[in-house]
Amino acid sequence: MAELVQEHGAQHGSTGISNIKLGMWLFLGSECLLFGGLISTYMLYRGRVGEGPTPMQVFDIPFTSVSSFVLLMSSLTMVLAVSAAAKADDRSTVLWLTVTALLGATFVGGQVYEFTAFYNEGLGFSTSLFASSFYVLTGFHGVHVTVGIIMLFALVAMVRRNRIPGSKSETVEMIGLYWHFVDIVWIVIFTLIYLIPV
Amino acid sequence: MAIIERPSAPATVPAIPSASLGALKRPVTTQHGWRSWLFTVDHKKLGIMYGATALFFFVVGGLEAVLIRLQLALPDGRVLNADLYNQMFTMHATTMVFLFVMPMVSAFANYFIPLQVGARDVAFPRINAFGFWAFLFGGIFLNLAWFLGGAADGGWFMYAPNSGPVFSPSHGVDFWALGLQITGIASLTGAVNLIVTVLNMRAPGMSLMKMPVFTWMATVVQFLLLFAMPVITVALFLLMFQRNFGATFFDVAAGADPLLWQHLFWIFGHPEVYILILPSFGIISEVLPVFSRKPLFGYPFVVFSGAAIGFVGWGVWAHHMFASGLGPVSVAVFSVATMAIAVPTGVKVVNWTMTLWGGKLQFTVAMKFAIALIVLFTVGGLSGVTHAVAPSDTQQTDTYYIVAHFHYVLFGGAIFGIFSGMYYWWPKMFGKLLSERIGNWNFWLMAIGMNLTFGPMHILGLQGQPRRMYIWTEARAGEGFFNLAFWNLVASIGSIILAVGVLFFFINVLVTARRGAQAPLDPWDARSLEWMTSNPPKEHNFDSIPTVGHLDEFFHRKYAEDHQSGEIRKVQGAEEILAEMERNKDAHIHMPSPSYWPIVLALGLPVIAFGLIYSIPVAIVGGLIVVLGCFGWAIEPSTARDEDVDPPAAPSTEVVRHG
Predict the structure, then answer these.
(1) Which residues of A touch B3 (CB under 8 A)?
(2) Which of A188, B86, B145, B536 would be B175's cystine partner, CB 3.0–4.6 Å?
(3) CB A166 to CB B196 under 8 A?
(4) Are the C-beta atoms of B198 and B215 separated by less than 8 Å?
């Protein structure tokens, strides 16, 4: 079976890391540059408010802090899911994956609320360079969280129906890597956008 | 979801999910005809498809170039009007860079990396197939703009304000931005896939420093792609939001900074030039030793200088922007870094020359292209160093001198390397040797045509002829040696010769396909692992996975040193080695089954892009196709079941299909 071991996902190759996990690490490396570009754009333009509202006029820092806390807690539940998957405990895996997805959905819901509130306060997408770069950066992050939620629910369905061949914990761990990455990016974005005054 | 490649279970754990869910049946490879190509996940077939598509776009880009030269051949040219001329040079560059050289590199990398590292396929075969289809659909999408109101016309680096609606009112730039976004997705997935393949799936005994140089260089390129593509992705998204959704990221009147685009573009764009050239460096590092009958001189230096180029390549982007007023400190820093990157490149040139030195040279067409690369790339490299000197660069910016420079490195470098690889590997891919006689016409006409076309551009540029001007007049052409009329005509005649040279390649392919004889197993007495299999290779590449003990493993199996006389003698041929591998062949070889989903998923992308330009509901339909594709992909059975076989498989298949 040596060839099989070399050719497919869950087994460990020359690096000692499985193909799917190594692939995810590489993809996340690439994502760093994506967010790097978006964050640079925001940092360049955050002071250029034109006629529109300034960041400090629209930001509701306590609200965003709470939703950030919710997102960070989802990383904790993700760890619990990975740990349950490693113990082949399908019931706990499904439970924690679902909780993680719901916490993520809460965060996205908070973002939708926040965008709506900002819009009502006069910060449209094309109001100013600050507005455009803010919406693009946080919007891209929101899309990443949403994709993560879809992946988590898909994973729940697959675990429940026993549709993941090979090592289940490996797949759960790989999605976990993505989820933690998205959380870490949010810490950077939250600090740069909300906490550092312009 | 695309990142999940379903792992297949070891034989002890039965793979459960093969219940035939209607459309979710997985096809089997015993299919013939078009379906065996459309749904394939075989890295070799995908490599050939990449190559064929890339060559098609090479012809498209070449015809665009010939039209440009016809327009400029004589004063007051009437072949193209100004608007069409702008579209022509923009699409010429875009096509050659993104739709010819990059996918051609993908073709070689896809085909030969698994063979050179002794693997049976890439790490994620379905993602590999998705990458090809995304590239194909992205390329078609880019060119559709020609028929829908005009192609992109802002130059290939699409500076603001040329990219804005005022100067580019057609949808050309929208097609350009979204099309490149799609081909970018293809490059990114390809990069992840090939890096994992190289890092995780090498044959036993093949340490990193025993890998063939082509694999090394192609791997460095995949890392460059991995980190460069997201940057252009950001830039293209910002451009899209500006053009389609009212943002003002690059609109100076709204207080934006035009340098933002330039930085984002060139942070991608400079690594991109190494993405284009490094694989060709790898190819000739395979070709030169074989036809010099010598090992590559200083293998570690070639490898590390390639990696060094990969690193330093990230620190030189602003030399494209010396004329934009960056300030003296930035200019000085990037100037020095640019000079520094000439050093590892120079190291390679020395290594190749030393490989030739004292060798028993065989001047095959592949070898001629490789040697021409060394010469022409050195010429282009030297004019490149003159750009590192900022004051001199300020003089040369946006003149034909720049055009001359990058055509020497990209045509004389990247494309000559690709042609060298074509002649060298053709028998491996198709089992037939390309004709050397027609190949010589191909080579000499291309070499002469290329120098006649791009050589005079140095003179034109230093005399101040700006790039991208669509017309010139006799009255201002100057006199004597520097007469612009004369050199423009020479360049245009050169481009025709060049085109005829390329035509000979296609004639060669046709003649070889019709009348070429079966190539011997080891036609060049080659050195690396990809030759340790039949021509063309079997679907599973190797009957038994070789254990590697040396760099140039194949050579070391064929030749041994006589201890008494110290002579190197041939002890066995490729036939014996292959026969031995067949005797020890692996009992059960599991190859991935084909899949319907990569092409479905890829098809959703241009639909989304269409929708973003014309109507949002169409984009939603595209999004649904993508989501459907992802789920179909994720839950499709890991293997084709016997009852899924359509048409019924031959009763005894030697190779077991398995997810």
Answers:
(1) 20, 23-24, 27, 174, 178
(2) B145
(3) no
(4) yes
> pLDDT value at position B625?
94
Per-residue model confidence (pLDDT) at position B29 = 63
Contact B110, B49 (CB under 8 A): no
Residues A104-126: pLDDT tens digits?
Answer: 999 999 999 999 999 999 899 98
Handedness of CA B15, B19, B22, B25 (dihedral sign): positive
Nearest to B137 by CA among B80, B19, B68, B53: B53
Question: Residue B218 has which token pair?
Answer: 């192609």
Q: Which two tokens stand for residue B347?
A: 């190291």
**pLDDT at residue B105, rounded to an integer:** 95
pLDDT of A188:
95
Contact criterion met (CB below 8 Å) for B243 and B177: yes
Assess A137–B contact: CB distance below 8 Å, yes or no: no
**Radius of gyration for the alpha carbons in chain A, expressed in angstroms and rounded:** 19
Q: Give the pLDDT confidence score for residue B103 in this predicted structure.
A: 95
So what's the pLDDT on residue B4?
Answer: 38
CA distance B507 to A38: 48
Q: ipTM, 2 decimals?
A: 0.91
The CA-atom distances, in angstroms, between B643 and each of A153, A164, B25, B633, B654 are 31, 22, 10, 20, 18
Reply yes or no on whether the pLDDT at A45 is more than 80.
Answer: yes
Residues of chain B with pLDDT under 50: 1-20, 22, 645-659
Calculate helix-pair angle for B43-73, B125-144, nearest 10 degrees.
20
- pLDDT value at residue B540: 87
Q: Closest to B9 (Cβ–Cβ): which among A7, A32, A165?
A: A165
Among B1, B3, B5, the strongest candidate for a mutation testing the A interface, having the largest count of A CBs within 10 A, is B3
| B590-591 vs B656-657, strand pairing mode | parallel
Q: How many CB atoms lie within 10 A of CB A143?
A: 11
Within 8 A of B586 by CB-CB distance, chain A residues are 2-3
- Whether the CB-CB separation of B249 and B241 falls below 8 Å is answered with yes
CATH domain A33-195 topology: Four Helix Bundle (Hemerythrin (Met), subunit A) (1.20.120)
**Degrees (nearest 5) of the Cα angle B548, B549, B554?**
65
Q: Which residue from B minimizes the CA distance to A16?
A: B200
Q: CA-CA distance, B247 to B626, in Å (whole number)? A: 27
Residues A90-107: tens digit of each pLDDT: 889 999 999 999 999 999
Quick one: tokens of B29?
């490879």
Domains and CATH numbers, chain B: 43-538+546-585 (1.20.210.10)
Beta-bridged to residue A12, according to DSSP, are A18
pLDDT digit string (tens) for A128-163? 999 999 999 999 999 999 999 999 998 888 888 776
What is the distance between the alpha carbons of residues A1 and B577, in angstroms, rounded to a whole number? 23
Both tokens of B81, joined, read 């009007």
Angle (CA) B481-B487-B489 rounded to 5° is 140
pLDDT tens column, B581-629: 888 888 777 788 888 889 999 999 999 999 999 999 999 999 999 998 8
pLDDT of A3 over the 60 cut: no
User: Which residue of A1, A129, A167 is in closest CB contact with B248?
Assistant: A129
Q: For residue A136, list chain B residues with Cβ-Cβ distance below 8 A.
A: 237-238, 241, 247
**C-alpha A31 chain-centroid distance:** 11
Shortest CA distance from A25: residue in chain B: B192
Q: What would you report as the CA-atom Rg of chain B, rounded to the nearest whole angstrom?
A: 25
Contact B433, B523 (CB under 8 A): yes
B8, B266, B626: which to substitute to probe chain A, counting the most A Cβ within 10 Å? B8
Neighbours of B643 (CB within 10 A): 10
Shortest CA distance from B264: residue in chain A: A37
Strands B568-570 and B559-561: antiparallel
Output the six-digit token pair for B518. Answer: 């079966």
